[in-house]
Specification:
Blueprint (H helix, E strand, L loop, with lengths): L24 E5 L4 H12 L3 E6 L2 H8 L5 E5 L5 H15 L4 E4 L15 H29 L2 E6 L14 H21 L4 E8 L8 H4 L2 H10 L12 H8 L10 E4 L7
Parallel strand pairs: 1-2, 1-4, 2-3, 4-5, 5-6, 6-7
Length: 266
């Protein structure tokens, strides 16, 4: 007689629920356009309550009308007090913060380094890097007390490689700093269950890059220099975003995830 215990039934593998965000509270900065709008919609579709933040309140208010449970908070991330108010507003409304996406960003294109506007350089670094450090620390205070969370810093392929022939030294420097900030904070807070990772997109058509996609020569340059011979479609960041935000990446911190069609693999 065969031993029925020799090959016990396999435990079903759940490949969907680890990506769910039911009951979690997610903050997305830069949520008045482009990637930020998409990120907010993706989080809501995964079951999260979403706090959307940006300077343009009218756009935020329009966005929250289409989400099942969302809060709009006007916030200029270059203003420290507004950053503090953002995190406090999220905590007051929902009692917790589980995910932060530092998505707000600006560029200094097109500025040759030899003719640099130092004030603009400082402004770009302040928005793209300093604000991310402040907001990460503010939400980490809540996450540590609640047993953990996920911080996603939206960097860029130009945090990994030079931007030339685009001329944007402040953008490249700030995004490179953001990649390494993610490493350092990821290591510091790992023992508290707070994971910090960077998401590094290639060229996607957004408000920030629209001028490039509207220019035939620049679009050709993007296509020639991307292994997949095209820019990214905005939905092609959905999986990476949910992976980093959810339990699907529970053993991942202090690193970066590149979604660039092969740009940095050249």
């Amino acid at each position: 007689m065969a031993d029925s215990t020799a090959n016990p039934p396999a435990t079903p593998i759940d490949i969907v629920n680890p990506f769910r965000l039911d009951g979690r509270v997610c903050i997305v900065t830069g949520a008045s356009s482009g990637l930020g709008v998409r990120f907010a919609r993706v989080f809501a579709a995964a079951g999260a309550s979403v706090v959307v933040a940006a300077r343009r309140l009218d756009r935020l208010e329009s966005l929250v009308q289409e989400l099942p449970d969302a809060l709009a908070v006007q916030c200029d991330v270059a203003d420290d007090e507004q950053c503090r108010d953002l995190v406090q507003s999220a905590a007051d409304r929902y009692g917790r913060v589980d995910v932060l996406v530092n998505n707000a960003g600006i560029s200094d294109a097109v500025n040759p380094a030899e003719n640099a506007d130092v004030d603009l350089f400082r402004q770009v670094v302040d928005v793209n890097l300093n604000a991310c450090f402040l907001l990460s620390g503010l939400v980490a205070q809540h996450m540590i007390g609640n047993g953990g969370g996920s911080i996603i810093n939206v960097a860029s392929v130009h945090g990994l490689v030079a931007s030339a022939p685009n001329l944007q030294p402040a953008y490249a420097a700030s995004k490179a700093g953001l990649v390494n900030l993610s490493r350092d904070l990821g290591v510091q807070w790992a023992r508290h269950g707070v994971r910090v990772n960077a998401l590094c997109p290639g060229y996607f058509e957004t408000e920030l890059t629209q001028v490039m996609f509207d220019d035939e020569s620049m679009t050709g340059w993007i296509n020639r220099n991307t292994a997949m011979r095209r820019g990214g479609a905005i939905h092609e960041l959905d999986g990476a975003l949910l992976f980093l935000a959810s339990d699907a990446s529970s053993y991942m911190t202090g690193t970066h995830l590149t979604v660039d069609g092969g740009w940095t693999a050249r």
